[in-house]
Structure formats: C-alpha cells, structure tokens
Specification:
This protein is of the alpha+beta class. It has 3 helices and 4 strands.
C-alpha cells in the first residue's frame, strides 16, 4: 500500500508518460495482464488507456488489472489509469517513506 505522499510523487513521475497499453472492446485478457505485469517488473509505473469502445471504464479496468497482478492504482483520470508495482529485487523508483 502506498501513502498519499508516495501517490503524489508517483503522479508527478507518470505525468510525462505516454500510455503503453490499451483496453479496447476485447476487454482484459490474461495475456494482456501478463504483459502489463512484465512491463511493471521492469519499469514499476505504467499508464493505460481505455478506449471509448471498451466495455470497461478506466476505473474498472485499472481495479481489475491491479487486483490480478497485485499492483496499486495510483490515479484514474478520464480514460487513462496509472498503475504502480514495486520491484522488490531491483527497485527502479525510490519513493520517500513518509
């Protein structure tokens, strides 16, 4: 679980990111979830875009993906969601403790 200060720090880092993954009318499948998990293992922070033709809202998609891969939803704005998952072995992002 991340603290509100850590969440604010992650929002700032994600501000310059472009969406790497998209959720469309096909929904969320296991292969896509595995790809997102692999991406987070390397980068720790990802921005996902939920397309207009998707059956999911950005909030629903982010919550479902985060639950499946044990990640944190940092922020959901409009059709975009930001997820964070710390790499315990080789952390990329050094968050302040409090």
């Amino acid at each position: 679980m991340i603290t509100p200060k850590q969440r604010a720090e992650l929002k700032g880092l994600a501000n310059s990111l472009e969406p790497v993954f998209q959720v469309g009318k096909g929904g969320i499948n296991d292969a896509q979830v595995a790809q997102i998990d692999d991406y987070l293992r390397v980068h720790e922070l990802v921005k996902i875009k939920v397309l207009d033709n998707s059956l999911y809202t950005a909030k629903e998609a982010a919550a479902e993906i985060a639950e499946k891969i044990n990640a944190d939803v940092v922020q959901v704005i409009g059709s975009k969601a930001i997820l964070y998952k710390r790499n315990e072995k080789e952390p990329v992002i050094r968050l302040k403790n409090k």
